[in-house]
Amino acid sequence: MYGVDESVKVRMPAKNTNDVLADKIAYCQKLITFIKTKSGIAQVQDYGTAESPEGDGGG
């Protein structure tokens, strides 16, 4: 994720540091929402490793 935009780290939700399951789930939900809506990362595709639609590795 940082390879796309190094400034994304400071904009991410605060990382959970305890072992409370509800807090871990809440962090994951916040992180998913951030990635989908605010980071711009969800729209990036790595064309160097993506398989072609035929499944032959793209080459």
Element-level helix/strand string: HH
Low-pLDDT segments, ≥5 res: none
Strand segment count: 0
**Cα gyration radius (Å):** 16 Å
* Alpha-beta content class: mainly alpha
Termini distance?
26 Å
| Range of helix content | 25-40%
* Portion in strands: under 5%
Q: Main sheet?
A: none
Q: Roughly what is the average pLDDT, rounded to an integer?
A: 75
Q: Based on Cα principal axes, name the global outline.
A: elongated
Count of individual helical segments: 2
Describe this protein's structure.
- Helix content is 36%, strand content 0%.
- The chain has a domain of 36 residues.
- It is built from two helices and no strands.
- The protein has 59 residues and is mainly α.
- The longest helix has 17 residues.
Please provide a brief summary of the model.
This protein is mainly alpha-helical and 59 residues long.
Which properties best describe this structure?
59 residues; 2 helices; 0% strand; elongated
Q: What's the arrangement of secondary structure elements?
A:
Elements: H1 8-11, H2 21-37
